[in-house]
Amino acid sequence: MPPLLLEWLSAIARWIHVLAAILWIGDSFLFMWMDSSLEPPRKPRQGAVAGELWMVHSGGFYEVVKRRSLRPEEMPPNLHWFKWQAYTTWISGVFLLLVVYWLGDRALLLESGSRLPYGAAVAVSIGALLAGWVVYDAACRSPLARRPALLAIVLSLALAAAVFGLTSVFGARAAWLLTGSMLGTIMVSNVAHVIIPGQRKMLAQTRAGEPVDTAPGVLAKRRSTHNHYLTLPVLFMMLSQHFPSGYGHPLGWLVLLLISGAGVALKYVMNARTRSDWRAVTAGSIALIAAIVLTARPGVGPASASVALAIPVPDEQAFAIVERRCTTCHSDHPSNPSFPEAPSGVKLDTPERLRAMSTRVWVRAVETRTMPLGNLTGMSDAERDTLGAWLVALRRTH
Ligand code: HEC
To answer: What DSSP string describes 228-272?
Structure first.
């Protein structure tokens, strides 16, 4: 497919994806908030009332009453469902994976050293999305479900294994994104296979005038709470392509787990408005600080030692390395056919442009080694050392 068409498709899909995700997460936050803000009814109300609350917005007042079930004669003519936000997010997300990763450049999915054939990598990534749901759903349906703390521990360990596995198979950037896609798939499957069917069942019983079994409602609430706590980690993973110091770290899997833990703790604290839980605050802060400290360490590898020595490197030598390894993509007219324009608008084809971008060049090519993309142009460690030494000297003179 022509790269320009791919770029348009990915731009439009990303637009839809972000919009749908905002709506989905917005609903999730609003409904969780409403549930946690319910008060006992202050006037007599009919039916299985769970609570009521009042809101002011859009120039008016909203009186909300939550019912656990309805009687047949109470069935409203219009009942609003919230599911297409989730489905649209997932469909557009898979389309994005297709356009960006599966039909796009091999270098995005795999590092150049990987011996995995491209087709196999695509198959493994699709398999990971499905496997995530199968494992999660099985764990939730097992006897573990009766012990929520144990379930949480088992699922966290499974996530750790998945992150570790994905980061060892795929390119660092793709691995983080695929982890997010895997969790996103779990979330949408919760909606499609548990929450909505459960609610449909309750409604069918109501319509038929049968006694309503509220167990599916309880299960739906539990799964939607899981979804709710996954939102912050998934959001971070989706935005992580702008965070090479994280995914490019040799212990990237650990960085991601720490950040995910911090995200869950943050959501917990946001929800527990009336009882701010110092244990969650402490755990979340420690996880985040640990992630920051971890990434603040100098990148491991041979570069650090010789960069510290800062052997003088002539300008020409540094330009030649960048010319050889970077400008096939980062120039006015990239020769790499996958990029009609320089990726991220970064051009490194003149000494001025290279100097102007020196900090980011340092981060991407020397510190995190996340550039060249998938090391497609085969940059060697020695070249990174040399470029690093030149950049250090450049910094000193400015
Ligand atoms: C095969 C194409 C390709 C090659 C070769 C390549 N890059 Fe990139 N570069 C990309 C893509 C794609 C992006 C945008 C995605 C991203 O940021 O990961 C990017 C983004 C960047 C950015 C901007 C994002 C940021 O973090 O500031 C910098 C800087 C960069 N590359 C530096 C380099 C350097 C230095 C080299 C050579 C050592 C290089 N690139 C080689 C494809 C390439």
So the answer is: HHHHHHHHHHHHGGG-HHHHTSTTHHHHHHHHHHHHHHHHHHHH-
* CA-nearest residue, atom 37 of ligand 1: 326
* Residue 207, helix vs strand vs coil: helix
How far is the C-alpha of 88 from the C-alpha of 229, rounded, in Å? 20
Q: 133: which 2 tokens?
A: 């749901």
Distance, in Å, from the CA atom of 237 to the CA atom of 240, rounded to the nearest integer, reads 5
pLDDT in tens, 307-332: 556 568 889 999 999 999 999 999 99
User: Which residue, chain included where needed, has tokens 């980062």?
Assistant: 330
Whether ligand 1 lies within 6 angstroms of the CB of 184 is answered as: no
User: Ligand 1, atom 35: nearest CA belongs to which residue?
Assistant: 361
Whole-Å CA distances, 140 to 152, 163, 202, 223, 260: 10, 20, 21, 9, 20
Distances (CA, A) of 309 to 103, 305, 359, 361, 398: 43, 7, 19, 19, 18
Tell me the DSSP string of 83-105. -HHHHHHHHHHHHHIIIIIISS-
Q: Does the pLDDT at position 241 exceed 80? A: yes
298: CA distance to ligand 1 center in Å? Answer: 20
Q: Residue 171 — pLDDT band, cuts 50, 70, 90?
A: confident
Of ligand 1's listed atoms, the one at least distance from the Cα of 105 is 1
Instruction: Note if the pTM is more than 0.90.
Output: no
CA 333 to ligand 1 center in whole angstroms: 15
Task: Report the chain's terminal Cα–Cα distance, integer Å.
Answer: 45
Q: Are 302 and 385 in contact (CB under 8 A)?
A: yes
Residue 185 has a CB neighbour count (10 Å cut-off) of 20
SS3 7: helix
| Cβ(340) – ligand 1 distance below 6 Å | no
Q: Is the CB of 328 under 6 A from ligand 1?
A: yes
For ligand 1, say whether the CB of 360 is within 6 Å of any of its atoms: yes
Distance of CA 253 from the midpoint of ligand 1 (Å): 22
In this structure, the residue with its CA closest to atom 42 of ligand 1 is: 373
Distance 189 CA to ligand 1 centre (A): 35
Residue 9 alpha carbon to ligand 1 centre in Å: 21
Distance CA 41, CA 28 (A): 23
Question: Ligand 1 centre from 74 Cα, in Å?
Answer: 60
Residues 28-67 have pLDDT tens digits of: 889 989 998 999 999 999 888 999 999 999 999 999 999 9
